[in-house]
Design goal:
Protein name: UDP-glycosyltransferases domain-containing protein
Radius of gyration: 22 Å
Number of helices: 13
Shape: globular
CATH topology of the largest domain: Rossmann fold
CATH architecture of the largest domain: 3-Layer(aba) Sandwich
CATH superfamily of the largest domain: Glycogen Phosphorylase B
Family: Belongs to the UDP-glycosyltransferase family.
Organism: Ensete ventricosum (Abyssinian banana)
Strand order of the largest sheet: 3-2-1-4-5-8-9
Order of helices and strands: HEHEHEHEHEHEEHHEHEHHEHEEH
Largest sheet: 7 strands, parallel
GO molecular function: UDP-glucosyltransferase activity
CATH class of the largest domain: Alpha Beta
Helix content: 40-55%
InterPro entries: UDP_glucos_trans
Structural class: alpha/beta
Strand content: 15-25%
Length: 370
């Protein structure tokens, strides 16, 4: 970020501080995207308490948001969405626990279903005038919000929930599909176009990526469209720190012509908040308290990924054989390792936490060493 751009940013912030306003945040319907948006809302609320914050989601997600620790300046707005009307399970208001082909289907359905009601929401907020609508901050997978905001004369920024290094690789693989002509061996190195010096191995690609053999693949087409739409956004916010990724932030700004702002890591900037299921969170932290510093291995594959049952069993058995205590996070039932082969219901050395755990607090705990 150049000196002039930094000065312009400071002027914009000072100007915003002198007036009340409304900032609309619109996360993608996945936990790994909702949480950074919430953390950004907490950060904005703490630094600019005069702001009104409006977080947009769907009706099926309201109850989950209301159970969380939210800023007093944040209001929730639900857009109508009935997943079962579109060939999805009735509770598919997020991508959690959906198989890859249905996640892709959800991605495509969201735009057609939510765009008209999102446009009406922005129009209503503009008409209300008080507090004035300052900007929309929408997720990188909701690129269609950028032309809507532009049409209505509203400043639009895209929030990327990762850093530009990872995002550049992700976009390049989906848009260029280098694995199609990159050899068939699982360990063959495949160059990532546009990211000098970076290669990936075929076995590192998830099954959905591996199945993409042409630009017409649904996921490839979705990512390509969102990337193009996000180019029309007037700024990009990144869940990273400039000290970690300045060369890649600068490269993104140069290639897109967009201002870039490193606003993360958002979970740290937002401060300590209650996360995870209350009872399970207390159980996890109490279990960690009983272990010595650096002794526990934390096992988590996120909310979308699944290990084959035999691999999960092998990993748990290896940890147990080595005498390493482990805390295994399993938000969905099929993410838990199978019971041990000795007929016991639980692993002796490990705690399998079935549900949402306080991941930040777990990683902060002195007992966790890996």
């Amino acid at each position: 970020m150049g000196i002039e751009a930094e000065r312009e940013r400071e002027i914009e912030i000072e100007s915003a501080e002198m007036r009340e306003g409304n900032v609309v945040l619109f996360p993608f319907l996945a936990h790994g995207h909702m949480n950074p948006s919430l953390d950004l809302a907490r950060l904005l609320s703490a630094r600019y308490p005069h702001l009104t914050l409006t977080l947009v989601t769907t009706s099926g997600n309201l109850a989950g948001f209301r159970r969380l620790q939210l800023p007093t300046s944040l209001r929730l707005v639900a857009l109508p969405f009935c997943p079962s009307d579109h060939g999805l399970p009735p509770d598919a208001d997020t991508s959690f626990a959906l198989p890859p082909h249905l996640v892709t289907h959800l991605n495509h359905v969201i735009e057609g279903c939510l765009l008209p009601s999102f446009r009406r929401l922005l129009s209503d907020l503009i008409s209300a005038a008080s507090p004035p609508l300052i900007c929309v901050i929408a997720d990188m997978f909701l690129g269609w919000t950028a032309p809507v905001a532009k049409e209505l004369g509203v400043f639009h920024a895209t929030l990327y929930t990762s850093g530009p290094y990872a995002m550049s690789i992700y976009y390049s693989i989906w848009i260029n599909l280098p694995h199609v002509d990159g050899g068939d061996g699982e360990d063959d190195e495949i160059a990532v176009p546009g990211v000098p010096g970076v290669t990936v191995r075929r076995r590192q690609l998830n099954p959905n990526m591996r199945s993409a053999r042409s630009p017409d693949h649904k996921s490839a087409a979705f990512v390509r469209r969102q990337a193009a739409l996000c180019r029309s956004s007037r700024a990009t916010l990144w869940n990273t720190a400039e000290v970690l990724e300045k060369p890649f932030l600068d490269a993104w700004a140069t290639s897109t012509g967009q201002p870039v702002y490193a606003v993360g890591p958002l979970f740290a900037a937002a401060g300590r908040v209650a996360r995870g299921d209350g009872g399970l969170a207390a159980e996890c932290l109490a279990w960690l308290d009983r272990h010595v510093s650096g002794s526990v291995v934390y096992v988590s594959f996120g909310s979308q990924n699944r290990l084959p049952a035999e691999e999960a069993a092998e990993l748990a058995a290896a940890l147990e054989e080595q005498g390493r205590p482990f805390l295994w996070a399993a938000p969905a039932p099929d993410q838990a390792p199978p019971p041990p082969p000795d007929g016991k219901s639980e692993w002796t050395s490990g705690l399998v936490a079935r549900g949402w755990v306080p991941q930040v607090d777990i990683l902060r705990h002195a007992a966790v060493g890996a």
